[in-house]
Amino acid sequence: MSGVASYNAPVLILALVMLGGAMALALIRLLFEPTIYGRILALNIFGTLTVLLISLLGFVNGRPDFLDIAILYTLINFVGTFAIVRFLRTRHPDFISPNKNRGKDGMA
After folding, report:
1. How far apart are CA 108 and CA 102, in angstroms?
2. How far is CA 50 from CA 45, 57, 59, 89, 101, in A?
3. CB atoms within 10 A of CB 60
4. pLDDT tens-digit profile of 63-92?
5. Which domains does the chain have, with CATH numbers?
6. How many other CB atoms sit within 10 Å of the CB of residue 102?
7. pTM to 2 decimals?
8. Contact present, 104 and 93 (Cβ < 8 Å)
9. Whose CA is closest to 102, among 85, 89, 91?
10. Which one, of 14, 43, 18, lies nearest residue 29 by Cα?
11. Which of 15, 96, 2, 8 is CA-nearest to residue 55?
């Protein structure tokens, strides 16, 4: 841990362990969630936790350029989630909008 004072080391190790545990729980939810909503949400949570992990590792190693990578990954995560929802909405409208009382314009 070259970029961080030694008295912060236990706090950072604890943060990394807790972040790893949260990522493991998000993966478990992704694998065992029965609905498509829950899977998309779990994938988005995992992406957000990955951004936090990249940022924390950049801080620990004293590499501020990792924040640029984290911002780029945030953008990819957002666009990917939006694309998945858009795809499901066009290919499988019953997954996203099960309400049968909608008009042609999509409004109630």
Report:
1. 5
2. 9, 10, 14, 26, 39
3. 19
4. 889 999 999 999 999 999 999 888 888 887
5. 6-96 (1.10.287.3510)
6. 12
7. 0.75
8. no
9. 89
10. 43
11. 15
Collapsing DSSP states into helix, strand and coil, what is residue 85? Answer: helix
Q: For the chain, how many residues are written?
A: 108
CA dihedral 50, 51, 52, 57 (to 10 degrees): 90
Percent of the chain whose predicted confidence (pLDDT) is above 70:
79
Token pair in block for residue 3: 């970029």
**CB-count exposure of residue 26 (10 Å: 0-12, 13-18, 19+):** buried
Sign of CA dihedral 56, 57, 63, 65: negative
CA quadruple 65, 66, 70, 76: dihedral positive or negative? positive
pLDDT tier for residue 62 given thresholds of 50, 70 and 90: confident
